[in-house]
Amino acid sequence: MAKSKRRWLIERKxxxxxxxxxxxxxxxxxxxxxxxxDSMFNILKEGNIVIELGCSPGGWSLYILEKIGESGxxxxxDKAPLPIKRKYPQIEFIQTDVLQSDxxxxxxxxxxxxxxxxxxxxxxxNMTGKYELDYYRQxxxxxxxxxTIEKFLKRGGSAVVxxxxxxxxxxxxxxxxxxxxxxxxxxxxxxRKHSSEFYLVGLRxxxxxxxx
Length: 212
Ligand SMILES: C[S@@+](CC[C@H](N)C(=O)[O-])C[C@H]1O[C@@H](n2cnc3c(N)ncnc32)[C@H](O)[C@@H]1O
Description:
CATH architecture: 3-Layer(aba) Sandwich
CATH class: Alpha Beta
Distance between the termini: 44 Å
Number of strands: 7
Shape: globular
Largest sheet: 7 strands, mixed
CATH topology: Rossmann fold
Strand content: 15-25%
Order of helices and strands: HHHEHEEHEHEHEE
Number of helices: 7
Bound molecules: S-adenosylmethionine
Radius of gyration: 17 Å
Number of domains: 1
Helix content: 25-40%
């Protein structure tokens, strides 16, 4: 086994959030990031229609399903499979690459309504360890998340988008400020300390043209 993989496995064994996620039957430790953000801003409510970008392996999805209840609807998207064991009628999983040019049309055809209460994106590229490459791949994912918000989020809706700290952070924050009444940058305790990720949280969407 490669040294880096062995180190990663040892780190994971010591990881409190990973152990808690396993004990509670969640698919990934990532759930604690969304739980933390939702506990701060009360984003997810019973009956909500939600789009989730980058849903696999399904930690966030299980939390969202708990919060929106049986009257809600979750459109969960990833290029990887979603290994949730139980069947939930409220979830529609769409396995597709969000970077393909007709992604928004594919999503539109699956949706019953264009009026979505909450859009969440935990999209992240496969990391190569080369900062610039990883950073700009992540920016491409942030841009499609923003395009999804512009197409589907209803007025007054909320969004959470994963971003990596870097040269575009200020522009992205300004862009969020041009679309949402309240904007927050959040680094949940469950984010790994050495990770540059944080989440842009937008509350009370009022729209606006996309320009950086
Ligand atoms: C950090 S993981 C998401 C974890 C998830 N929130 C959870 O709680 O289990 C990021 C996800 O983004 C997905 N992803 C990355 N690039 C993508 C793309 N171009 N199209 C669709 N999904 C993509 C990956 O497949 C991966 O499952």
